[in-house]
Design a protein that fits this description.
about 170 residues; Maf protein; CinA-like_C
Length: about 170
């Protein structure tokens, strides 16, 4: 196990402890991380008690079909946008038993960048069953692995902070 694995597992353990104590379930909707957040979560023994499911949706079609993201939102804002990740997060709640969901979509590189969305641009959303949805966009430096790792770390870290696990 690497230091990165240990760090992510510790973070996921914090999240899982809180979710278990409150009887909540988590769902994930991932694009640029390709399931890495779900991998970090399921590295924790007993995570089936608090992790319902994860969705990996790379294409527009998958985001529409699996998570209910509107085609008009994808075409107007692009997959890497707060509008889309907000719909991904709420779609993950709709398609699961989860109480809270997180969603990520970004440009990990080395290709795929545009003038207004350079490599490292990542959009995040967190949605709760009570209707609260928050989102943000960040830009991370580094290669594909560094951007993806920073995305996983940030998504779980903010989740931990927002639910009060840390």
């Amino acid at each position: 196990m690497t230091a990165v694995d240990d760090e992510l597992e510790a973070l996921a353990t914090e999240v899982g402890r809180w979710l278990t104590q409150h009887g909540w379930l988590l769902a994930t909707a991932e694009s640029c991380t390709g399931g890495w957040i779900s991998t970090a979560v399921t590295a924790v023994a007993g995570s089936s008690d608090w992790f319902d499911r994860g969705f990996v949706t790379y294409s527009y079609e998958a985001k529409e079909e699996v998570l209910g993201v509107a085609r008009a939102t994808l075409e107007r804002h692009g997959a890497v946008s707060e509008a889309v990740v907000r719909q991904m997060a709420t779609g993950a709640l709709t398609a699961s038993r989860a109480d809270i969901a997180l969603a990520v979509s970004g440009i990990a590189g080395p290709g795929g960048a545009t003038a207004d969305k350079p490599v490292g641009t990542v959009c995040f959303a967190w949605a709760r069953r009570d209707g609260a949805v928050t989102s943000e966009t960040l830009r991370f430096d580094g290669d594909r692995r560094a951007v993806r790792l920073a995305t996983v770390r940030h998504a779980l870290g903010v989740l931990a902070a927002r639910i009060g696990a840390r």
